[in-house]
What we know:
Elements: E1 8-11, H1 16-26, E2 32-35, H2 51-66, E3 70-79, H3 103-116, E4 126-136, E5 142-153, E6 169-171, H4 183-187, H5 199-211
Parallel strand pairs: 1-2, 1-3
Antiparallel strand pairs: 3-4, 4-5, 5-6
Bound molecules: inosinic acid (IMP).
Amino acid sequence: MRDLKGKTLVVASHNAGKLREFADLLEPFGIDAKSAKEFGLPEPDETGTTFEENAYIKAFAAAKATGLPAMSDDSGLAVDALDGEPGVYTANWAEKPDGSRDFMMAMEKTEKRLQEAGASDPAHRGGRFVAVICLAWPDGEAEYFRGEAEGHLVWPPRGDSGFGYDPVFLPLGHQRTFGEMTAEEKHGWKPGQPDALSHRARAFQKFAQARLGSA
Ligand code: IMP
């Protein structure tokens, strides 16, 4: 696998929440990172059925279009009582008929499904956020880094930090939801420190150790 040092890295996402988190995570490495949006790239259709497939579709499309290495993240929430749903369709559950996204509606839908499944106590409301980072090169070579964060879903939503389903996700061993944490607390990680907390930071930690020379 080739070296990223001295190269521009495209962050293949149009999701403002993810872009903010990757900017924070990449900042200590002094990498010249630019978003797919800055290159005016279209958002490819996510036609895969796994996080890996969708992460590859996004990263490779950006790498091919720019001639630069590109990283993407495909992520979602897998709820045990819903047999792993919404999973790769996590963003779709927020889609409205006009194409815009409403995450309060998506969290309500998840809660309704949990109620229908009779999952009212925390022990039956477990799940995890999953993030798969793909690093792809213009010739199609690709590498994957997966991070997961265990926890359970709370209702009503708590906190207005972060994005997406953060206000209903209480990570294992914590008293505050991702929506009640600062970005730094949610990542839970800086280079050289042992354990990241969020799924994205855990995947990023593996990526940084493998490709950015992080401790
Ligand atoms: P995709 O990776 O673009 O398919 O979108 C994944 C969806 O999962 C996002 O739109 C969010 O709704 C949700 N998601 C992924 N990571 C997080 C997170 O860190 N916090 C809250 N929601 C997330």
